[in-house]
What we know:
- The protein is an alpha/beta fold.
- The protein folds into three domains: 4-126, HUPs (Rossmann fold), CATH 3.40.50; 127-164 and 205-285, Alpha Horseshoe (Serine Threonine Protein Phosphatase 5, Tetratricopeptide repeat), CATH 1.25.40.80; 296-473, Orthogonal Bundle (DNA Cyclobutane Dipyrimidine Photolyase, subunit A, domain 3), CATH 1.10.579.10.
- The chain is 47% helix and 6% strand.
- It has a five-stranded parallel sheet with strand order 3-2-1-4-5, sandwiched between helices.
- The longest helix is centred in the middle third of the chain and has 22 residues, at 264-285.
- Residues 227, 235-239, 242-243, 272-273, 275-276, 279, 338, 341-342, 345, 363, 367, 369-371, 374-375, 378-379, 382 line the site of flavin-adenine dinucleotide.
Amino acid sequence: MSSKALVWVRDDFRINNNDALIYATNNHDVVTAVFIFNNEIFDNKREAQKWWLSKSLESFSSDLEKLNIGLEIIKDDEVNFFSKLKTSNKISVYWNKVYEPAEFDKDKKIGKDLSEKKINFKFFKGNVLNEYNKITKNDGTPFKVFSPFWRNAEQFYMERLPDKINKVKKCKKIEILFKKQIKSEDILPKSKWYMKFDKYWAPSESKAHECLENFVNKNILNYGINRDFPSIDGTSKLSPYIRNGQINVRDIWEKCKKLKSNNVGVKKYTNEIGWREFSHSLINYFPQMLKGNLRKEFDNFPWVNNSKFLNAWKRGMTGYPIVDAGMRELYETGWMHNRIRMVVGSFLVKHLRINWKEGEKYFRNCLLDFNEANNVAQWQWVAGCGADAAPYFRIFNPILQGEKFDKQGEYVKRWVPELEKVPSKFIHKPWEMEIKYQEAINTFIGSDYPMPIVIHEKARNDALNAFQSIKKKN
Length: 474
Ligand SMILES: Cc1cc2nc3c(=O)[nH]c(=O)nc-3n(C[C@H](O)[C@H](O)[C@H](O)COP(=O)(O)OP(=O)(O)OC[C@H]3O[C@@H](n4cnc5c(N)ncnc54)[C@H](O)[C@@H]3O)c2cc1C
């Protein structure tokens, strides 16, 4: 075996529990990590994530340096990059899997190319509990319903052979391998929009563990209740760290299992990790859902093309405070609370009848935690056209959702400050305030804040009729 190794870093910016890195450092004297920035994947598609990526590369590079491992950033297409690697480089290549069909495709092409060149390579389990193809029904077909999937998946995980406890070893020295490197700053999005994210996030492995520690010590036992209230810090906010592999979900699972196993909060939390596993299984078994509806009857759904409404939704100017607060939280912080993701998603596909793909695309560009599996599966869940989805006829009422989960309007007032003086009675339906009242608080609905762009009852009936029309065709 060669004395040098190359570790291809993708969604795994961590030292702990990183199988490719552990293997490389335990078997080679000199290890170099490489991140290949393929701008085709990111430009105008995943702009917010460029910020997270750039900051992650910075922190990961300094963590690796302490172990005498260099991190080199190359701008290229991944397959093209490896095609230039020569047998004479005398280097072994390692990476962790990424559970997306397009990434598996790359693995195949790169693996074939390296094999032909007789370059030693090996890939490892990525950031999941189980390999998705290990979890099937008794007849070998994939699950399409979450509960039996997770019952099986969790059981399978608990009964696995214990993981070998290996750690990353310090290497002999740093060696520079590639001449044409770029800097982590070169990845930052061009627009200044990303600068705000600094206020809210610190992308690094140590921050991910601190975040988990805090959540487990303070919030997890109440997660079952608090997770639905967007004004409370009731969820872990680990999603961008998990997405970028700053923490391994196996570490999260282990930590949770050490707690009171019967507690509803702990159970619900590990269930959410289960939903992530489920989404990864779905997109790999049914890759067609990355392009369109999993339930084909939705191909006939009469979606509406309305750029004015779509823009109002994106800008948080629909006139429904809970929807607008969510969309503004997303734009400001690169993250949105799960309950509110469901509310804004439902509003887009049901009240406005705009195709879920528009929402998916916008979230992909703005979310720091965007991942193909969760985003596509969840948008189809909201739209009713996915696996184990919310039925289309169940339409969230944005006024009632607001009154139930943000009773005093604290969340709304945080993100829609023009409604600051509106009393809680009207905070989710400010258009019902009498003009006298609007004058008294100097807040005018229709000028300071928009009137609703659609009327809830009518939008609801139109959505139900549209749904009936596809049922008749099938
Ligand atoms: C329309 C829509 C789009 C979404 N897009 C994404 C996305 O691109 N990336 C993403 O990670 N999540 C997505 N989600 C799921 C969920 O909203 C986020 O994972 C969650 O809000 C992240 O916050 P948290 O880390 O505090 O979650 P917690 O409640 O603390 O949950 C812990 C972890 O479990 C996973 N998780 C939680 N809820 C879900 C879920 N419903 N489905 C799958 N995994 C889940 C995440 O990895 C999360 O970090 C989407 C949900 C909806 C309704």
